[in-house]
Every structure is written in C-alpha cells, then in structure tokens.
Amino acid sequence: MTIDSAKFNRAAISQKIAEQFGAHCEVNNPYTGWQREETKLIDIANDIWKEQTGSEMIVETTHGGLECGLFKGVMPNVEMLSFGPTIEGAHSPSERVNIESTEKNYKFLVELLKRA
C-alpha cells in the first residue's frame, strides 16, 4: 500500500463513519504523501549532525504532511530530506518553537548546503 492509497483509504473510512452518524465528510485537500528514501543525502546529513552534536541523527517517519511530497511529485529524481526545530503544541494557540533547536538546525542547514 502506498502512502497516498493509505491516505485515501483513511478518508473513505472517515466518510463512512460520518455517514453512519448522519454527518457529511468531504475531503477537499488531498495533500500528496511522501515517504523518505535511503539516499546519499541522508548519509551526508547524518555525518554533519554527528559532527555538530556528538550524537546520531534520529531518522523518523511522521504522520504530518510535508512539502517534500509536493516537490517529489514534480521532481521525482531529486533527493529529499525534511528536518526542523523542536516544535511544541503544533497547530494550536500554544504552539512554540525551541530557539536552541532552531540555532542547531540553521548551522546544520548551512553545512548541508556546503556539502550536498
């Protein structure tokens, strides 16, 4: 099952549940999914992260929508990597970003652009 087919499957399930309770559910923003790939870029990124922080980079897959899915759709041969600072309370009135992690990510990005 692909990322997009899983998304469409979940949307169909949500629509059926809504209908069972007399509600209407409409999917109006089919955001393209993206699945990370094992690439040379990730290896370079891990080397930089380890040099800068002294620890291994944590590589995870998240549930959130990422711009990488949109970019990958039109640039399928481009290696992609998504990273960012620590964010707490995302998409809520109490959303905030950890400033220290923002600084680490900036230094990481600068070095990644030099080496990639």
From TrEMBL:
Protein's name in the database: M20/M25/M40 family metallo-hydrolase
User: Which positions carry the signal peptide feature in this UniProt record?
Assistant: none
Source organism per UniProt:
Anaerococcus cruorum
Cited Pfam families:
Peptidase_M20
SUPFAM superfamilies linked to this entry: Zn-dependent exopeptidases
